[in-house]
């Protein structure tokens, strides 16, 4: 481009953010309101709690579709009552904490494996028959674009129940979970380094205690419609939080999901967020780079905030350099973390920004859920 006398030249691109070396200022729009909390009374027995989720609608769905599937397979005499189905599910639950090598051993005459509760609840042939025809949807009306169409009705009903009986707490977390499966299926995943490496991947929104609020099964590009700038993972977070009641929840997630665009959109929706963020997703933020931070003492940190857009980027040097993005938690109040010092031969206190402490204390909801499920994982499997 040729410049003539008096010309101002090409216009400079206005930066998307105005980063300053200052801590974030709390926004009243992102303040948790305890008065908006309306939790259902759950002072119930264990069986009553179970029936809140496996309510008559869910039980009727399974009974109806199982009978339909039996007829499809040529057995027009098959029927199952709600009581029988609940007993069937109870046996599956028992198999999670009283495991035997083969399921028929529960009905064995040998005292060391026989389970009297199961024997008295249902005969083995009846259990096998219900297992054979157990079904959740009409095979003649499947959505061919949905890899989870055979279980989608149950997913939908469970999500409704999860949200209905959700005991509202401010801090929530989003992460992925795995349902173990070794058979063949187009949605099966392999994730190296996970406790469960083979199976179905599920995106989950949970409380810090591991209560599931919303589930989205992963099925590659068909999972959600990715929005430019957010990617699939960012859009998953937005889809999960749409189920939340009106209040300023604080959602925590890891660097798979985090981006400036996602944080901006959550702020616009009145939701607080905190997450680790990858070095290539920090945009134009002039925060000290990772290599420079690695040379500094453990506990060193750098931060930049844009208080107009309610955003702060914090980089902290611990065993590794970690970068966090938040629209609510900043550096202050500065805390400490106990770390082993090889040089001093003892544990020492190192500075820790408040945003790091918040992330560490609230990110484990899905891990807690996985732990709870793992303790009672069903020991009776089907090849269907």
UniProtKB/TrEMBL annotation:
InterPro entries: PGBD (IPR029526), PiggyBac_TE-derived (IPR052638). Transmembrane segments: none annotated. Residues 48-383 form the PiggyBac transposable element-derived protein domain. It holds the Pfam family DDE_Tnp_1_7. GO terms for molecular function: sequence-specific DNA binding. This is PiggyBac transposable element-derived protein domain-containing protein.
């Amino acid at each position: 481009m040729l410049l003539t006398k008096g010309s101002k030249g090409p216009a400079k691109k206005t930066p998307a953010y105005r980063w300053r070396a200052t801590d974030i200022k709390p926004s009243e729009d992102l303040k948790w309101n305890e008065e908006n909390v309306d939790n259902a009374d759950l002072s119930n027995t264990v069986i009553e709690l179970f029936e809140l989720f496996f309510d008559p609608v869910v039980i009727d769905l399974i009974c109806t579709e199982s009978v339909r599937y039996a007829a499809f397979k040529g057995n027009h005499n098959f029927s199952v009552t709600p009581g029988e189905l609940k007993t069937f599910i109870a046996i599956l639950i028992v198999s999670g904490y009283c495991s035997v090598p083969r399921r028929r051993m529960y009905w064995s005459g040998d005292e060391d494996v026989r389970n009297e509760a199961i024997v008295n609840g249902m005969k083995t042939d009846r259990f096998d028959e219900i297992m054979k025809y157990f079904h959740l949807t009409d095979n003649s009306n499947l959505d061919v674009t949905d890899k989870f169409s055979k279980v989608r009705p149950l997913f939908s009903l469970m999500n409704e129940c999860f949200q209905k009986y959700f005991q509202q707490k401010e801090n929530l977390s989003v992460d992925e979970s795995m349902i173990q499966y070794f058979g063949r299926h187009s949605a099966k995943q392999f994730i190296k380094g996970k406790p469960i490496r083979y199976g179905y991947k599920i995106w989950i929104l949970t409380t810090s205690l591991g209560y599931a609020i919303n589930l989205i099964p992963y099925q590659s590009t068909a999972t959600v419609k990715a929005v430019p700038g957010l990617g699939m993972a960012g859009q998953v977070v937005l889809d999960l939080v749409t189920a939340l009641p009106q209040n300023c929840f604080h959602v925590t997630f890891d660097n798979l999901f985090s981006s400036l665009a996602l944080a901006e959109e959550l702020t616009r929706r009145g939701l607080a967020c905190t997450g680790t963020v990858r070095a290539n997703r920090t945009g134009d933020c002039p925060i000290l780079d990772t290599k420079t931070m690695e040379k500094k003492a453990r506990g060193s940190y750098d931060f930049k905030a844009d208080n107009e857009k309610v955003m702060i980027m914090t980089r902290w040097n611990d065993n590794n350099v970690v970068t966090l993005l938040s629209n609510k938690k900043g550096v202050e109040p500065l805390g400490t973390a106990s770390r082993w010092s090889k040089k001093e031969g003892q544990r020492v206190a190192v500075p820790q920004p408040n945003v790091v402490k918040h992330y560490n204390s609230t990110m484990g909801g899905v891990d807690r859920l996985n732990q709870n499920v793992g303790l009672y994982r069903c020991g009776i499997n089907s090849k269907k």
